Amino acid sequence: MIILKGAEAAAQIQREVEERLKALGGYVPTLAIVRVGEKPDDLSYERGALSRMKKFGLRAESHAWPADISMEEFGERFRRISEDGDVDGILLLRPLPPQLDEREIERMIDPGKDLDGISPENVAKVFLGDRDGFAPCTAEAVIRILKTYQVPMEGKRAVIVGRSPVVGRPLAMLFLQEHATVTVCHTRTRDLERECREADILVSAAGKAGMIGGNHVREGAVAVDVGINVTPEGKLCGDMDFEAVSGKAAMATPVPGGVGAVTTAVLAEHLVRAAERRKEQGRV
Amino acid sequence: MIILKGAEAAAQIQREVEERLKALGGYVPTLAIVRVGEKPDDLSYERGALSRMKKFGLRAESHAWPADISMEEFGERFRRISEDGDVDGILLLRPLPPQLDEREIERMIDPGKDLDGISPENVAKVFLGDRDGFAPCTAEAVIRILKTYQVPMEGKRAVIVGRSPVVGRPLAMLFLQEHATVTVCHTRTRDLERECREADILVSAAGKAGMIGGNHVREGAVAVDVGINVTPEGKLCGDMDFEAVSGKAAMATPVPGGVGAVTTAVLAEHLVRAAERRKEQGRV
After folding, report:
1. Which of A94, B94, B131, B254 sits most deeply, having the most CB atoms within 10 A of its CB?
2. Helix (H, G, I), strand (E, B), or coil: what is residue A45?
3. Nearest to B80 by CA among B94, B66, B67, B65
4. What is the mean pLDDT of chain B?
5. What is the ipTM of this complex?
6. How confident is the model at residue B284 (pLDDT cuts 50, 70, 90)?
7. Quick check: helix, strand or coil at residue A223?
8. Regarding beta strands A2-3 and A251-252, do their DSSP bridges make them parallel or antiparallel, or are they unpaired?
9. CA of B264, closest CA in chain A: separation in Å?
10. Which of B120, B128, B156 sits opposite A165 (nearest CB)?
11. Which of A94, A154, A183 to mutate to test the interface with B (most CBs of B within 10 A)?
12. What CDD domains does this protein map onto (chains A, B) (predicted)?
């Protein structure tokens, strides 16, 4: 069985980014990370993103705001960043505390800087298959890791477990762009094992440790685990029982070291793309 | 076999609309139909929409513009309608001639009046499962006809043939809202017959006469035909070979008289919804 390593995909993206930075002639794109409060998940993702940007030769700045920030204050600060000529791209760590209206915030962000595809404009583009839009980084990371290992997608059956707006749904659209036949399963799906066994490419994005076992995987399938869960012992694990799945699959991603290791590399690629466009438009 | 009649669903929608019109206290919502050129398809759809609005007690006005209208002129006129306080909803007949930039036009329409869900705002809402958004009328008509005949969707396998932005993709999202397990097939799908035979609910929106036959349908399935094609003899027909399909399916929609007969009723319901919201906002 081949282990699909996120580091491989990230290294490939790094080479692309370095090429394109050269073409930008010394301009160093800047990412603004916006974090509200001090949630451990957010802090860990932020650290990962900051170190990735540095490694790729990109600039990043972190904006940490108090957990009890009012919607008014948030809106004022967030708009200022969105309009800041020195900022090429924005990553907003979510979910946000309840006093902040995410729907309204999604409409505040400049779609050209919206690297994680939260604005209606980018959501619509991804939905319509317009490659010009920014897809959520995690969904795109799945496609990137498959492409790195040259997994054919055209005409293949891709089965996604999970229908969330940040992974399952956009990933379904990205698979359609790759000409895969796509099935989306979820908590109400009647016979999940059977649905999953139909997959040439099985992606789990359900957020439930160990929910995908050997019975879910057809001999020779490709298994991609987007889940990031923490065991009672504090260990990171995915949605898949890796040992059981490896016994069947031809290729599988580990957790950690799989999709999660590609996400911030995709973010970096989006940042460079945003900067390239701003340059074309004479905005930098 | 039960024939799923569009007229049944339309009559149910009419009763709802009449109730809600009463609650609007005499206010009669107005639809603006925008047509460019004189394409027979557009003229026929326009006639259907006008007579449906009249039948439901709604107002409709038709704006017919020359096929060679410039983008500038179109934009000016279209914005005027979108901003017109007397217009509650808009239907733009598409596709438009090549000199008109559909992407730009989708961004001009007031999302609150965008009854056929073409604005990024509504596309994003449908994608995210936000029932507040307007879905494309044809996609919603499929769900309406199934609900009229109380076809259970939760946990069922819905298979859609066709991945277009106006039917296949939004319909996939609407089925997810109904908690169906959804598969989207298309021209690159490897074994279409097999995929279709897995369906509890099979929907064809491919626009190819006779492409779905008896081998595509499982015994007892529900078959919904969204295709509207014209035979060489000038007769209307769907994507399904109705006779062959009826031999297998438990329920099936005819063409004409199926989904097509529900679409303008959904449009009318959207118009009333738009007017209700404008009233809530004190705009009428």
Report:
1. B254
2. helix
3. B65
4. 97
5. 0.96
6. confident
7. strand
8. parallel
9. 23
10. B128
11. A183
12. NAD_bind_m-THF_DH_Cyclohyd
pTM value > 0.90 = yes
Rounded to whole angstroms, the Cα distance separating B59 from B268 reads 10
Tokens of A11: 């290294």
Pairing of strands B30-36, B59-65: parallel
Residue B124 and residue A129: Cβ atoms within 8 Å?
no
Helix (H) or strand (E) holding A92: strand A89-92
Mutate to test the interface with B, among A109, A123, A159, A174 (most CBs of B within 10 A): A123
CA-angle at B123, arms to B85 and B61, nearest 5°: 35
- Look up residue A25 and give its amino acid: G
Between CA A205 and CA A14 the distance in angstroms is 25
Q: Is the peptide bond before A95 cis (omega within 30 degrees of 0)?
A: yes
pLDDT in tens, A1-31: 999 999 999 999 999 999 999 999 999 999 9
The neighbour count for residue B280, using CB atoms within 10 Å, is 9
Among residues B26, B76, B14, the alpha carbon closest in space to that of B267 is found at B14
pLDDT, chain A, mean? 97
Question: CA Rg, chain A, in Å?
Answer: 19
Q: What is the pLDDT of residue A284?
A: 84
Percent helix, strand and coil across chain A, each rounded to 5? 45, 15, 40
Q: CA-CA distance, A37 to A22, in Å (whole number)?
A: 36
Reported confidence tier of residue A171, pLDDT bands at 50, 70, 90? very high
Asked if A165 and B127 come within 8 Å (Cβ–Cβ), the reply is: yes
Question: Which of these, A141, A121, A118, lies nearest to A49 by C-alpha position?
Answer: A141
Which amino acid, one-letter code, is at B122? N
| Cβ neighbour number for residue B68 with a 10 Å cutoff | 10
Annotated binding site of A: 162-164, 228
CA-based nearest residue to B220, from B254, B253, B249: B249
Q: How many residues does chain B have?
A: 284
Residues 6+ apart with CB under 8 A from B176: A163, A169, A184, A186, B129, B182
Q: Which residue of B has its CA nearest to A154?
A: B188
| Inter-residue long-range contacts of A85-88, CB under 8 Å, 24+ positions, other chains counted | A85/A283, A85/A284, A86/A30, A87/A30, A87/A31, A87/A32, A87/A61, A87/A113, A88/A29, A88/A30, A88/A31, A88/A113, A88/A271, A88/A274, A88/A275, A88/A278, A88/A284
Between CA B185 and CA B162 the distance in angstroms is 6
